[in-house]
Design brief:
This protein is an alpha+beta fold and 213 residues long. The protein folds into two domains: 80 residues, Beta-grasp domain (Ubiquitin-like (UB roll), Roll); 78 residues, DNA polymerase, domain 1. Helices cover 39% and strands 12% of the residues. It is built from seven helices and five strands; from the N terminus they run αββαβββααααα. A five-stranded mixed beta sheet has the order 2-1-5-3-4, with helices on both faces. It starts with 16 loop residues before the first helix and ends in a 5-residue tail after the last helix. The N terminus is likely disordered.
Amino acid sequence: MSKGGNKKAPPVKGLDRRTFLKGMGTGLIGTATIGQGILAADAAAAQPAAAKGENIEKAAVTMTINGKKYTVEVEPREVLLEVLREKLQLTGAKLVCGHGECGACTVILNGRIVYSCLMLAIEADGAKITTIEGLGQPGNLHPVQKKFIEHDAYQCGFCTPGFEVALADLLEKNPKPTLEDIKRGLAGNICRCGAHPHIFNAALDLAAGKGGR
């Protein structure tokens, strides 16, 4: 006589352990494949245009620089200093810090002082710009340039163009500045060689005379 406890239980319908594990493995592989596909698509979409081989857009910018009109094709990422130096060969403005901290790249744009290393060239479309080349030329120096020579107001020369442009602008707006006015007006320019006393003396000499041109 057989006892109920010895009877084998009927097999449970559905997934057994082996089938379940196999299914899980297949599902995980499928999920990983789908995930990789999504990630790959996202990564491709996030690539910059240049990495995909697409053309970078350019724009024609027209500027009047030192009284002469220029039209030049620029990329949206290019700064004014780069265009002046590399495309127009106006190399007086210097690339020193590249962060708008030293003033070596100073130019006058529409009557105000700007750091050309920080301004996008495309923003200067239609602007009137004066660079150091527009102040004076050999044989016809600007008064500021003459006084810099007289007072030995330069050493390595990298900061000199920015200082001269900034001082010329200051004297144009205030021909008789005080020492405090001069220090404030040139505060955005740095001389790493330490020629500031000579620069201030040159400025004071100009202020005592006729000032700017």
